[in-house]
Design a protein that fits this description.
The chain has 364 residues and is of the alpha/beta class. It is built from 9 helices and 16 strands.
C-alpha cells in the first residue's frame, strides 16, 4: 500500500427519523461559506439510515441536539447537498465543529472522536512526509542517482512502519469499541468476500456488536448468497408488458442473468455478443434474463428494440434502489451470473468470448 489512507466515505441511503432512544448529544458548529440552510446528522444502519438530529444554519452557525442510545459512526451533512463529514458521535462530551466546502474540517468532542483525530493526524503527517520523499526519489531517479533512490525508499518504508506502529497502538487500546470496528471496516465496499471475512475475523467479540461490524457481517452474508456455488436467490419482476415473472419459473439447462441498463455504454456494447450467443444456443437449453436498472420505461423499451434483444426482460424501474440490486449486491453494470438448471451459480461476470466458451462447453 503506497499511502496510509483513512477512508472516510460510507454509503448512506435515504434517511428516516429516529428520536427518544437515549442520552442527549449536542453539536455546535460553524460553516464559513454558508449563511443559511439546514445541517443534518445521519447514521447508517444495516437496513436503513437514521436521522439523529437537525438544526438550522443561521449566519453560518448551527446547533444540533438529539438522542443517542449508543456511540455510532455518523455523517454531518448540509440538507440538499451530497457528501458530508464522517465522525464518531457519542454523548460523553459536547461537539464543536468547523466545516469548509473544500472538505477541510475540525470536529472535536468525545473520547472516540479524539482518538479518530489522533489517528487522522498520524495518517496526514505520514502522507505528507512520504510525499516529499517520493518527490526527491523521482528527481534522483530521473538523474540516475540510483544509490540515492535506494536510500529514499528505505526512508519511506521507515516512515510507513512508524506510522503503522503508532496507528496500531491507537487501534489496540480501542479494540473493543466502535473506533476499532470503524477503522477496520472502512473501505469494505471495495473488498472481495475473502478480504471481508478476514476483516471480520480480526474484530474482537465486543467490536462485533457495533453497527459497523453488523453491517460488515450483513455484507458477507449477501455476498455469500450470490457467490459461485450458491443457489441464486429468487426474485419476481415485471416485463415491459406488465407481466410478473419469477426468476425460478424460467427453465433452462443454462440460465444467464444479465444486469444492465439502457444508459450503460459497456452494456450496450456487449449486447451484440449476447444476441449471437442466445441465437446460437437458445434451442440447446440456454435461457437469458436481462434485468434492467432503468428508471424510465420508454428508454428501456427503446434499447431492447434497437439492440434486437429477443429474450426475457424484467425490471421494477427503481434503478439502484431495486430490491434485486441489493439482493444480488450489484455495484456496477454490466454484471452477469450464469446458473445451472437448479439455479446454482456456476460463473460470474464472464463476457464476450469467455462467456461463449463457457456456454459452449456446457451445451455441446
Amino acid at each position: 500500500m503506497n499511502r496510509l489512507i483513512l477512508l472516510l466515505s460510507i454509503f448512506f441511503l435515504l434517511p428516516g427519523f429516529v428520536a427518544g432512544e437515549g442520552k442527549t448529544f449536542t453539536i455546535d458548529g460553524y460553516v464559513k461559506e454558508l449563511t443559511e440552510g439546514e445541517m443534518l446528522v445521519i447514521s447508517n444502519r444495516i437496513d436503513r439510515v437514521d436521522t439523529l438530529g437537525r438544526g438550522k444554519i443561521e449566519n453560518g452557525k448551527f446547533r444540533i441536539q438529539g438522542e443517542l442510545s449508543e456511540p455510532c459512526v455518523a455523517l454531518l451533512k448540509v440538507g440538499g447537498y451530497d457528501g458530508g463529514f464522517v465522525f464518531l458521535l457519542d454523548t460523553d462530551a459536547p461537539y464543536e465543529v468547523e466545516l469548509w466546502q473544500s472538505g477541510k474540517n475540525s470536529i472535536k468532542g468525545g473520547k472516540l472522536q479524539s482518538e479518530l483525530n489522533a489517528y487522522q493526524e498520524i495518517v496526514g503527517k505520514a502522507n505528507v512526509e512520504m510525499g516529499k520523499l517520493r518527490e526527491e526519489m523521482n528527481k534522483a531517479e530521473a538523474q540516475k542517482h540510483f544509490k540515492t533512490v535506494g536510500e529514499l525508499k528505505k526512508k519511506i518504508e521507515k516512515v510507513k512502519e512508524k506510522a503503522q506502529k503508532d496507528l496500531g497502538v491507537i487501534v489496540e487500546r480501542n479494540k473493543d469499541n466502535l473506533f476499532a470496528a470503524y477503522i477496520q471496516t472502512a473501505g469494505m465496499g471495495r473488498m472481495d468476500l475473502a478480504a471481508l471475512k478476514r476483516c471480520y475475523e480480526q474484530l474482537s467479540e465486543k467490536a462485533r456488536q457495533t453497527e459497523p461490524a453488523k453491517i460488515l457481517a450483513a455484507r458477507i452474508t449477501t455476498l455469500e448468497n450470490v457467490n459461485v456455488n450458491a443457489v441464486a436467490p429468487d426474485f419476481t419482476l415485471q416485463t415491459p408488458g406488465g407481466e410478473s415473472v419469477a426468476m425460478y419459473s424460467v427453465k433452462g439447462k443454462l440460465k444467464i442473468i444479465d444486469f444492465w441498463a439502457s444508459w450503460c455504454g459497456p452494456c450496450r456494447q456487449e449486447n451484440p455478443n449476447m444476441v449471437k450467443l442466445y441465437n446460437e444456443y437458445k434451442d440447446k437449453g440456454l435461457a437469458v434474463i436481462s434485468v434492467s436498472l432503468d428508471e424510465r420505461k420508454n428508454k428501456w423499451e427503446e434499447a431492447i428494440e434497437k439492440d434486437g434483444l429477443t429474450w426475457l426482460h424484467l425490471s421494477d424501474l427503481k434503478g439502484w434502489q431495486s430490491d434485486v440490486v441489493k439482493k444480488y449486491n450489484i455495484d456496477a453494470v454490466p454484471t452477469i451470473f450464469v446458473l445451472d438448471e437448479n439455479n446454482r451459480i456456476i460463473a460470474k461476470n464472464l463476457r464476450g468470448e469467455k462467456l461463449k466458451a463457457f456456454v459452449s462447453e456446457r451445451l455441446k
